[in-house]
Write a structure and sequence with these properties.
Blueprint lengths: L1 H23 L6 H6 L4 H7 L7 H11 L2 H12 L6 H23 L2 H46 L4 H11 L4 H13 L4 H12 L2 H16 L3 H25 L1 H24 L1 H5 L9 H21 L4
């Protein structure tokens, strides 16, 4: 009993310590950090070495910014629209792993269970980040036809292309409005319009957006009636969205079957662990029986990935 209470207290203390450390290390002036989150990796890497941070975090940020993974993490956070720095993201992940490991070991005094929970805590932030990125990308792609309609209308009434981009940023809701406002801010910082649009393509990773930016680049080089070109692209994108929705409807049963088959064994294992921990713990005891949950987990993941691959149809 005492061991259980000590484990809980240690886990809570670790969580409070990491939370307080993250706030204590927060920069006094976060303007540069927020700008670098929306710039390209090179510009962001240079901005990370600024002098507007508190002493300890400035040193940590400078060391992290020199690592190759920092630019990748910064781009991932930008794609998910998370207002976290790289240091805060890493602290969050480490804190979750430590707390999950201590809680798992304190609850059952089982090292295998503690490592399993720590692995889940390690993967959970990445999964959340990918889901958030996917939702934001789908929402952005769904807004692109309306974005093009706004640009076509503004071009036909006499606006220039830069003014049309600024108009879209003011009129469209997030995420499209937010992304085009960033394009405007990047132009105000000295970037040309094609450079700012290319930066948005790298940030969003949308094939439809890449098609639009390619059309604008061709217009910059050869000229022509950009309004007519964008109107044709808008029609193409609308048709792609319509076909993709039909495909999603036809494959929805298979996709949700994969989710159910993935969740059911895990839920059953959790219920058995709560009802009869002595019976369930025998599966995780060191020895040949440990191969059963490991093999089952690997086969579940493999089956889920195969089902996702079957119903994933690109157009």
């Amino acid at each position: 009993m005492w061991f259980f209470l000590v484990g809980i207290l240690v886990a809570l203390a670790a969580g409070v310590l990491l939370y307080g450390l993250g706030h204590a290390l927060q920069p006094e002036d976060s303007v540069e950090e927020r700008l670098e989150a929306w710039m390209t990796a090179d510009v962001a890497g240079e901005a990370a070495g600024g002098e507007h941070s508190s002493g300890l975090l400035a040193g940590v940020d400078r060391r992290v910014a020199r690592r190759g993974f920092a630019a990748v993490i910064r781009q991932d956070l930008a794609r998910a629209a998370l207002s976290l720095t790289v240091t805060e993201w890493l602290l969050l992940r480490v804190g979750l792993v430590v707390v999950a490991f201590l809680l798992g070991f304190a609850l059952q005094r089982n090292l295998i269970l503690a490592l399993f929970l720590a692995a889940i805590a390690y993967a959970a932030p990445i999964t959340y980040l990918r889901v958030r990125q996917g939702r934001r990308l789908r929402a952005f792609n769904a807004q692109l036809p309306d974005v093009l309609d706004q640009m076509v209308g503004s071009l036909r009434v006499g606006y220039g292309l830069s003014q049309s981009v600024e108009w879209v940023g003011r009129q469209m809701p997030d995420p499209a409005g937010d992304e085009f406002n960033r394009v405007v801010r990047e132009m105000q910082l000295g970037w040309s319009l094609p450079e700012a649009l290319e930066s948005m393509v790298r940030r969003i990773m949308s094939d439809d957006l890449a098609l639009i930016v390619t059309a604008i680049d061709i217009h910059y080089e050869t000229g022509g009636r950009l309004a007519d070109i964008l109107e044709t692209v808008s029609h193409t994108i609308r048709e792609r969205i319509r076909v993709q929705r039909e495909i999603n409807t036809l494959t929805s049963q298979q996709r949700y079957s994969g989710y159910v088959l993935m969740v059911m064994p895990i839920a059953l294992a959790v219920v058995l662990m709560l009802l009869s921990p002595e019976y369930e713990s025998q599966l995780f005891a060191p020895g040949p029986t440990l191969c059963i949950p490991i093999g089952a987990g690997l086969m579940m993941i493999l089956g889920f990935l195969i089902m996702r691959r079957i119903v994933e149809i690109d157009i």
